[in-house]
Amino acid sequence: MHRITVFGGAFLLAVCFVGLLPEAVCIQELHGSEASVSLWPFLAVLVGFLVQQVLDGISAHAEHGHTEEGFTLTGLMIGLSLHALLEGMPIVGVDGTVNWGLVIGIVIHNIPVALILVGLMTARGMGMGKVLLLLTLFALMTPIGSLLEVLVLQPEGLWRCVIVGVVVGVLLHVSSSILFDHKRNHFSWLNLGIIVLAFALAMLTIH
Ligand SMILES: [Zn+2]
Ligand SMILES: [Zn+2]
User: Fold this and answer.
1) Alpha-carbon distances of 35 from 27, 38, 42, 113, 181, rounded to whole Å
2) pTM of the prediction?
3) CA gap 193, 186 in Å, rounded
4) Domain span at residue 141?
5) Looking at 9-13, 71-75, 109-113, which range is the least confident one?
6) What is the Å distance from ligand 2's center to 85 Cα?
7) pLDDT bucket at 63, cuts 50 / 70 / 90
8) How many structural domains is the chain composed of?
9) pLDDT at position 14, please?
10) Ligand 1: distance of its center to the CA of 176 in Å?
11) How far is the CA of 74 from the centre of ligand 2 (A)?
């Protein structure tokens, strides 16, 4: 399972830089003829980083494929759900195309997360029906995020770039925490191979 976590983290890191960051570049018309790149989406990356820092506190690192001490299942569900809602937002581009690289990255990185959730819920004596219900709720958050972006927010221009920026910050936090976790992710050639493979496959799905 640790290998899937590392693969998912590396895949998302590549999607961030190659698939999402270029979308956060917004050219703004300033003073009539002058055009420049807006800095707001890049500030939004830092905001997204802070957002995930807080979400990590609530969800006890479950996004990283492990959990820290002292969490509640409610907090875990809330942290994970907010995160899933956010990461679903940039899936559909302004032209209506689906960012499949991001979709695949999210699905792979959510395999260990879902396994952790099921493990924790059953360990606390939750019935199978309730476990399935909560898992379905969690799985729905990402498509709900996409729907919100397309139907409700209808972001155009700068706003969309800012949202993409926030999600880049969130995903950078998650993927770098996974890859640079000294306690769990020791250097090994196999690990490096998995990371390079994830980068290459992410690149292939994006272009
Ligand atoms: Zn962690
Ligand atoms: Zn995620």
Assistant:
1) 6, 9, 17, 43, 41
2) 0.91
3) 13
4) 2-206
5) 71-75
6) 9
7) confident
8) 1
9) 95
10) 10
11) 17
